[in-house]
């Protein structure tokens, strides 16, 4: 599957040059209700401060967020510096969590969740069970994002300052770069920044978004092949 991560110009070039992707922190997500399920099955007589408990969970979990779409002007406006940035297309060859858009917050079992932590670290079983149940649901109004997520523990990631970075793996590789409609970067800039990706100097993986004459959707055009990127039909979000 190819999915896109939107960035401003500076962070986009950094991602290409260093071959990594910044892992989001759950307590920094745009929506404070995102990744904030309701706790159930709290033992009788036990008091749980939900705010502190989720801070405890969040401190060791990172998330990589992608969008399925590349031609939606709203996404470019919100996540790519008002069309001045870029979108990097990743070939993701492992299962992702597609975000579910719904009216009600999900629930997770407090006792089960606590059992699946080891020394405060999320185990693989935690990521496989608790994440799908409580950490991939958002309000319906976010559905335009058509978001896919990869969750990861932070323990093995590269730390720069207070940020964590995920080095690209064989199952997560860059296959496209799309320059925003207002982006000032050239195809040559991208080639130089991503020379470790494509040493041949091939332009076929670099596209630019442009306005359509008859639609608010964007056309994604490749100057080397003189063709538009074939964009799959939009499917209704879950």
Could you describe the 3D structure shown?
With 238 residues, the chain is α+β, with helices and mostly antiparallel strands. The protein has one domain. It is built from six helices and 19 strands. The strands form six sheets. The protein has a six-stranded mixed β-sheet with strand order 1-6-16-17-18-19, sandwiched between helices. A hairpin with a 4-residue loop joins strand 18 and strand 19. The two termini are 17 Å apart. The model has no long low-confidence stretch (mean pLDDT 91).
Overall residue-averaged pLDDT value? 91
Assign an overall shape: elongated
Enumerate the strands of the largest sheet in spatial order, edge to edge or round the barrel: 1-6-16-17-18-19
Radius of gyration: 19 Å
Classify the helix fraction into a percent range.
10-25%
Biggest sheet statistics: 6 strands, mixed
Number of domains: 1
Q: Summarize the helix and strand pattern as letters.
A: EHEEEHEHEEEEHEEHEEEEEHEEE
- Low-pLDDT runs of 5+ residues are none
Contiguous helical run count: 6
The number of distinct β-strands equals: 19
Percent of residues in β-strands: 25-35%
What's the end-to-end separation, in Å?
Answer: 17 Å
């Amino acid at each position: 599957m190819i999915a896109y991560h939107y960035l401003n110009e500076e962070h986009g070039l950094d991602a290409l040059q260093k071959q990594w992707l910044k892992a989001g922190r759950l307590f920094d997500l745009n929506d404070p209700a995102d990744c904030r399920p309701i706790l159930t099955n709290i033992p009788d007589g036990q008091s749980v401060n939900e705010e502190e408990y989720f801070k405890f969970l969040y401190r060791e979990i990172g998330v990589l967020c992608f969008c399925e779409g590349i031609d939606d002007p709203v996404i470019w406006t919100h996540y790519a510096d008002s069309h001045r940035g870029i979108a990097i297309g990743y070939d993701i060859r492992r299962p992702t969590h597609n975000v579910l858009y719904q009216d009600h917050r999900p629930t997770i079992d407090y006792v089960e969740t606590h059992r699946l932590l080891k020394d405060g670290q999320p185990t693989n079983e935690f990521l496989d069970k608790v994440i799908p149940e409580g950490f991939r649901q958002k309000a319906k109004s976010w559905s335009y994002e058509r978001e896919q997520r990869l969750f990861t523990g932070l323990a093995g990631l590269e730390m720069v300052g207070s940020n964590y970075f995920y080095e690209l793996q064989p199952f997560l590789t860059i296959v496209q770069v799309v320059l925003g409609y207002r982006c000032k970067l050239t195809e040559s800039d991208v080639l130089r920044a991503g020379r470790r990706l494509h040493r041949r100097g091939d332009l076929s993986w670099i596209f630019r978004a442009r306005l359509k004459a008859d639609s608010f959707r964007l056309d994604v055009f490749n100057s080397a092949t003189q063709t538009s990127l074939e964009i799959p039909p939009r499917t209704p979000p879950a």
